Amino acid sequence: MEKLRSPESLKRLLAPRSVAVIGVSAEPTGFGARTVQNMANFDGPVWCVNPKYAGQELHGRPCYASVDELPSAPDSSVIALPRTGVLPAVEALARKGAGGAVIYASGYGETDLPERAVEEEELRARARELGFPLLGVNCLGFVDHTQRCGATFMPEYAKMTAPAGGVGVVSQSGAMGYALMQAAERGFAMAHMLTAGNSTDLDVCDLAAFQLAMPEVRSIALAVEGLRDARRLLALGEMARAASKPIVVLKLGRGEIGAQAAMSHTGSLAGSTAAWSAGFKRAGMLEVEDFDALLETAGFLAKAPPPKARGVGIVTPSGGAGIMAADHAEFAGLELPQPRPHTAETLRASIPEFGSPRNPCDLTAQVATNPKLFEDCMAAMLEDDQYATVIFPVVYHNPATTPSRMKTLDPMAERSGKPICIMWIPESLEGAGPESVDTAPHLSLFRSTRRMMNAIRLWLEYHDQKAEADAPRVAAPALPNGEATLMEAEAKALFREAGLPVGEERRAADAEAAVRAADAIGYPVVLKLDSPDVAHKTEVGGVQLNLADAAAVRDAFARIMEGVKRHAPNARVEGVLVQRMERRGVELILGARRDPQFGTMLLVGLGGVQAELWKDVALDVAPVSPARAEAMLRGLKSWPLFDGFRGAAKVDVTKVADAIARFSAFAAACGDRLEEVEINPLLCRDDGCVAVDGLMKLSAAQGQPKAQRREAELEGAAER
After folding, report:
1. pTM of the full predicted structure?
2. Are the C-beta atoms of 253 and 716 separated by less than 8 Å?
3. CA 187, CA 344: separation in Å to the nearest integer?
4. Measured between alpha carbons, how far is 160 from 228 in angstroms, rounded to an integer?
5. Cβ contacts of residue 302 below 8 Å, gap of 6+?
């Protein structure tokens, strides 16, 4: 994995003190001209480069004939030239000693023309050789709002007057990044906006890492389409944790592009969308599912201090708004505790009998229009130690009175050390009212009740994150050479060597050998088809259970042979596996596969033959610690089965979590040879667990498996 670029090495490019714009024309709507206009409030020198206008002023800035004639080396450069002029400009700027360049030009690899992809790769290689960082190609540029530096061709940035600070925006899509940046027009506190475009050199991980180092950035809104190596997100997550700055992330292109049927349950359950979500979670990032939530959530996290409690309080002038808020809080899994006695006493003294001194606290329109009683109720709820935040719905936007109400609430939130969430219900979406919330340091505006509750949930989860112990270490297993499918016996032999709990079994080529094996193991036993060509033995009648004596073993052997002959006549048959009939327990599936983006992905879920039917699974990036493995278990809908459902014995979760962690370490130790590995089921009981079936599929050589390389190519093409 390529290391993240040092923020210090990008400072001149992305937080410049001087800027050169290469290719500025006299046409005011040209990309170069717009960029110069967007520097109107930037207090450093801005130089234009165009030989046609050398010695003149262009858009109020001096123009030079070439890069070589600039008065000094610019920190940041914007190349507003056609594609064919980009490489010569990069080389000239590097010779001059510039700090890097933004490249607007398109027509490279995004065209899917092979020769253009080669051209882009050559540009990347040359920039790396020169030690010259590039933003782009095919990008919209960046905005350093702390210095009012608008290195972008989008019009009228200079009119954005919001205070600098708060949220940093990083987006592969330039248009979507700038759409978020425009929140600064309504007073939303922004610090920095970066767009990666094709990510020829710098990708969104490098850019977000730079913003983490900016003291003005308190949270990051990150929009990701795709990455050359998504494992860089994990490194970015480590930086974010060290900086104590949350990253809110949205994955664009969530469809299962290039999904292929796999021979194991794991292959069908661990799709690319789920892998991205697992990767974000492992990185400690907070994933949202729609674009509207990205900036709202990041803005809330930039303002909100660490929570002092877990509960959510609701103070409303409308009973209906309170009910709606309570519904969505419940859907999000948030707690709505009732006020403490002393809080309830204050509420009862202020609220009419037709209101409600509970949570939600219905002030009614009567109290909501009485400043003193309103403030008393809000203060009481904010001071109640059960509440992490208090929600106030706005049901009617009055430009004359709403801003003054927000000016009352903001210092109350500051004094309590708790954020106030403004639930904006009116269809009057713009104007003095919502702007008064956006500009308030301790109030957060939400135009969706669902998004608000999800943001609060993510805020609580972010501050719940704790440092974990390391995953167990497993030596790289001795794998057979070449492409191979290891059926149950071979796979379980490797599991056993890795320290996983595997029951005793013996191979038998015929019925009498099966009887001898059963006598040695002890009855009752299980017989399973031993064939390299049949992955799902139950589908051909290849599993016979609870065989109590030799006669039952002989009959079962015959049934297995008859079934495979009928359903898979061309399958190679080695005989059967004879195993002890294990005591019943909860069946778990453990799976792992090579993901084209994140490497080895671990899957844990409700197992057995119905695994794909229920699809009750959790994913993570392997290897995982026992604590993380237990968290995966507890996150399953079927968790009550492990916790003594309806009087059943509780599973020994500690031993199961240890087995999951060891399995994940084993899968990761297989490296790039691993395509898929599965235990299904891992039988979980009060005395531990045991693997009763297994399967592995290995690629032919080192490197990404052919099928997964193709999947990555298809996903990348779709995202482009």
Report:
1. 0.88
2. no
3. 36
4. 34
5. 166, 167, 189, 218, 219
Strands (E), 215-285: 217-224, 247-251
Query: By the 8 A CB rule, do 193 and 168 touch?
Result: yes
* pLDDT of 270 higher than 70: no
Q: Which amino acid is at 345?
A: E
The residues near 333 (Cβ < 8 Å, ≥ 6 apart) are 457
How far is CA 372 from its chain centroid?
A: 45
> 560, 541 in Cβ contact below 8 A?
yes
Describe the chain by its helix, strand, coil percentages, rounded to 5.
40, 20, 35
- DSSP E strands: which ranges in 569-625? 575-580, 586-595, 599-606, 617-621
Rounded to whole angstroms, the Cα distance separating 480 from 566 reads 31
The residue type at 683: L
Residues 706/688, Cβ–Cβ less than 8 Å: no
User: How many Cβ atoms from other residues are within 10 Å of residue 470's Cβ?
Assistant: 10
User: Residue 476 above 80 pLDDT?
Assistant: yes
**In the predicted model, is pLDDT for residue 711 greater than 90?**
no
Where b means 16+ CB within 10 Å and e means fewer, 514-530 reads: bbebbeebeebbbbbbb
Residues facing residue 168 across a β-bridge: 192, 220
How far lies 172's CA from each of 8, 154, 206, 225, 402, in Å?
Answer: 22, 16, 12, 7, 37
Instruction: Name 445's bridge partners.
Output: 422
pLDDT in the model for residue 647: 85
